[in-house]
Amino acid sequence: MRLILRIGLLVIFSILAILFFVLDPAKHNFFPKCYFHSFTGLNCPGCGSQRAIHDLLHLNIGGTIRNNFLFLPAMMLIIYHFGHPVLNRKFNLRLPDIFYMKLTPWIIFAVVIIFWILRNLPWYPFNLLSPEG
After folding, report:
1. How many CB atoms lie within 10 A of CB 51?
2. pLDDT of 11 higher than 90
3. Domain that holds residue 112
4. How many domains does the chain have?
């Protein structure tokens, strides 16, 4: 059952990666819009992530950071979470899973809230955190 789930997830992620590689979310209305942004005109912490994925798949790191500054750190955390067990087994290491440390959720929560507030401030340099900045 776990193998079927993993294969299914791999197929879904592969299809989504191809879709995001081929179609630019900034130019196609096919992609879902952010409800928070649509209702308030403000950016949520995830605004710009679809464009960031497109830019990352095209190896445009500057565009990725411009669209969502937290996207790359979040991706690195996720990669570490799934990669550290492999590194521990393969190289006989004892790397901790930082996701399960006591303060990690609170630190991530604080960073996301602070980012959410700062990216909606209209003054320089905070306006650079906005996807439109």
Report:
1. 23
2. yes
3. 2-129
4. 1
Integer Cα distance of 54 and 49 in angstroms: 9
Question: pLDDT tens, 29-68?
Answer: 889 999 999 999 999 999 999 999 999 999 999 999 999 9
Q: Cα dist. 92→84, 85, 87, 89, 107 in Å?
A: 11, 10, 7, 5, 29
Residue 127, classified by CB atoms within 10 Å of its CB into exposed (0-12), middle (13-18) or buried (19+), is middle
The enclosing H or E element of 117 equals helix 104-118
The pTM of the full predicted model, rounded to 2 decimals, is 0.85
Beta carbons of 110 and 103 less than 8 angstroms apart: no
User: Could you give the residue ranges of the DSSP H alpha helices within 23-103?
Assistant: 35-40, 49-57, 61-67, 71-91
CA distance 70 to 16: 20
- Structure-block tokens of residue 96: 């901790």
CA distance 21 to 9: 18
